[in-house]
Design brief:
CATH class of the largest domain: Alpha Beta
Number of helices: 10
Number of strands: 12
Strand order of the largest sheet: 1-4-3-2-5-6
Strand content: 25-35%
CATH superfamily of the largest domain: HUPs
CATH architecture of the largest domain: 3-Layer(aba) Sandwich
CATH topology of the largest domain: Rossmann fold
Shape: elongated
Largest sheet: 6 strands, parallel
Number of domains: 2
Order of helices and strands: EEHEHHEHHEHEHHHEEEEEEH
Radius of gyration: 23 Å
Structural class: alpha/beta
Length: about 325
């Protein structure tokens, strides 16, 4: 039976629960290490007869605390994270607005006002290196000291349990920045995915037999893999197509500018202004400059053959 996760965006709107089994964090990527925590959370809820609650934040805390740091890129948009957590079987998702004022909450205020009075936490599950509260002063030891006072139990997932999956959001970002989308997929347990709106392009691709959909990312902080050409799956209105996608400046075409363009195999419909989803399967090659469009077409013919083989569409 499919479960529907309840989503709340303020502590004031959240219902007091009688037996809340809670974890918290940014959970960017909802990758294998996150899934270790979620599995433990759900197991405790099953044994204790409670409801699982995940607390996360929007916008990402780093964008508020370090606004001068323009390098932050996210593995998930907020919408993607919601969908992944629902798929993981979480009962309640609390997305707290992260502001400067919120960042100044002390650890004690966070425990009292959010975990206890706001949610009704009976069991808290955290990763071994988790910190919280003003200046990240809260730690497992801090939580353990206050747990008896406020009537909740705490479980810290050990370094050993998390390290043996050998996955982190940083490792996934590093793989994507190197174009290693297949490695990122192994860390995530699924294809790395992005959504974009199809916008008007220069329409040069169709003149050489490779029409492309030009994509504009839905979320400005979504991490794009390294520039290059990729074999991809493309989802349009719940239907899957093979394709190849180029990220970069397309140096063969003068004044093209940086773009995301996908050639969708066996598809010729007009999809302007539609939102489509792309899943990265593997990198085909780096971007290259060709002397003319004919040379580019010859290379694209080879790219398509390679992509068809990778997608097993031959």
């Amino acid at each position: 039976m499919h479960r529907y996760m309840k989503v709340y965006r303020s502590i004031e709107s959240f219902p007091q629960l009688s037996n809340a089994i809670v974890t918290q964090g940014t959970f960017d990527g909802v990758h294998f290490a996150h899934q270790v925590i979620l599995k433990q959370l759900k197991e405790i809820a099953r044994v204790k007869g409670g409801k699982t609650v995940l607390i996360t934040f929007d916008p990402h805390p780093r964008t508020v605390l370090f606004p001068e740091d323009h390098g932050l890129q996210l593995l998930n948009t907020p919408e993607e994270k919601i969908a992944l957590l629902e798929k993981a079987g979480i009962d309640y998702l609390l997305i707290l607005p992260f502001t400067r004022a919120f960042s100044r909450l002390s650890s004690l205020e966070f425990i009292r006002d959010i975990l206890i009075n706001g949610i009704g936490t009976k069991y808290l599950v955290i990763g071994y290196n988790h910190r919280f509260g003003k200046n990240r002063e809260g730690s497992f030891e801090y939580l353990r000291d206050y747990a008896p006072t406020y009537g909740f139990e705490i479980l810290e997932i050990s370094a050993q349990d998390l390290d043996k999956v050998a996955v982190s959001s940083t490792k996934i970002r590093t793989a994507l920045n190197a174009g290693e989308v297949n490695k990122a997929s192994k860390f995530l347990g699924r294809y790395y995915e992005m959504e974009g709106t199809v916008v008007q392009g220069k329409q040069l691709g169709r003149t050489i037999g490779y029409p492309t959909a030009n994509l504009q990312l839905l979320h400005p902080l979504k991490l794009l893999p390294q520039d290059g050409v990729y074999a991809v799956w493309v989802w349009i209105k719940a239907k899957k197509y093979g394709g190849m996608l180029n990220i970069g400046n397309n140096p063969t075409v003068i004044d093209k500018g940086r773009s995301i363009e996908v050639n969708i195999f066996g598809f010729s419909e007009s999809i302007y202004n539609q939102i489509i989803s792309v899943q990265f399967v593997d990198k085909l090659r780096d971007e290259a400059k060709f002397n003319n469009l004919e040379e580019l077409k010859t290379r694209l013919d080879l790219d398509k053959l390679q992509a068809l083989a990778l997608l097993d569409l031959k």
